[in-house]
């Protein structure tokens, strides 16, 4: 993911962050990953891309599009009227009161900083930005345009 190089993960928060990312690894595996990170980087704070390298063998191989679909479906459970947005206060209430590891204010600050938000959280826009789908769509359009240009010059 494109945002990975901008965020730190502390060793003490690794299990929680993995859980929030949908990676429900056993405590044994999390401890093994922590040990490996500490041996390599000799610190207890890591950039996400450093953690990703070590985690890769443990992750399910999902494409950005598949992850996007899972996230959209998850947000839709809170969007009872299927409007593609959730009131921010409702989202905060839902995600701080459900599950084993509810989100913190810092988690929400990061989420809301990724997109322009008012009182409504546009989860479609958030997921597109988070999964870098916006850039991929632009690249596909550019490729199509360049193919059209080459066809025109040939004829």
Description:
By secondary structure, the protein is mainly α. Helices cover 59% and strands 6% of the residues. The chain is built from eight helices and four strands. A two-stranded antiparallel sheet has the order 1-2. α4 packs antiparallel against α7. The protein is elongated and about 50 Å long. 12% of the residues are buried.
What's a concise summary of this model?
With 155 residues, this protein is mainly α.
Topology overview:
Elements: E1 8-10, H1 14-20, H2 27-41, E2 45-47, H3 48-55, H4 64-76, E3 86-87, H5 88-97, H6 105-113, E4 120-121, H7 123-130, H8 133-154
Mean pLDDT: 76
Quaternary status: single chain
Q: What is the helix/strand order?
A: EHHEHHEHHEHH
Total count of helical runs of at least 4 residues: 8
Helix content: 55-70%
Low-confidence stretches: 1-6
Determine the strand fraction and express it as a percent band.
Answer: 5-15%
- Arrangement of strands in the largest sheet: 1-2
Distance between the termini: 40 Å
- Biggest beta sheet attributes: 2 strands, antiparallel
The number of E-state strands comes to 4
Assign the structural class, choosing from mainly alpha, mainly beta, alpha/beta, alpha+beta, or little secondary structure: mainly alpha
Query: What's the Cα radius of gyration?
Result: 19 Å
Estimate the global geometry from the Cα principal axes: elongated
Key terms:
155 residues; mainly alpha; two-stranded antiparallel sheet; 8 helices; 59% helix; elongated; disordered N terminus
């Amino acid at each position: 993911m494109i945002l990975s190089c901008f965020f730190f993960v502390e060793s003490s928060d690794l299990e929680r962050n993995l859980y929030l990312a949908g990676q429900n690894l056993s405590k044994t595996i999390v401890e093994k990953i922590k040990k490996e990170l500490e041996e390599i980087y000799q610190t207890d704070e890591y950039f996400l891309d450093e953690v990703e390298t070590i985690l890769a063998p443990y992750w399910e191989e999902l494409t950005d599009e598949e992850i996007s679909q899972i996230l959209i479906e998850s947000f839709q459970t809170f969007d009872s009227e299927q409007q593609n947005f959730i009131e921010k206060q409702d989202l905060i209430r839902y995600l701080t009161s459900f599950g084993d590891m509810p989100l913190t204010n810092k988690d929400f600050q990061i989420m809301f900083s990724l997109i322009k938000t008012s009182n409504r959280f546009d989860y479609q826009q958030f997921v597109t930005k988070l999964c870098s789908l916006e850039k991929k769509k632009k690249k596909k359009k550019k490729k199509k345009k360049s193919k059209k240009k080459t066809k025109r010059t040939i004829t």
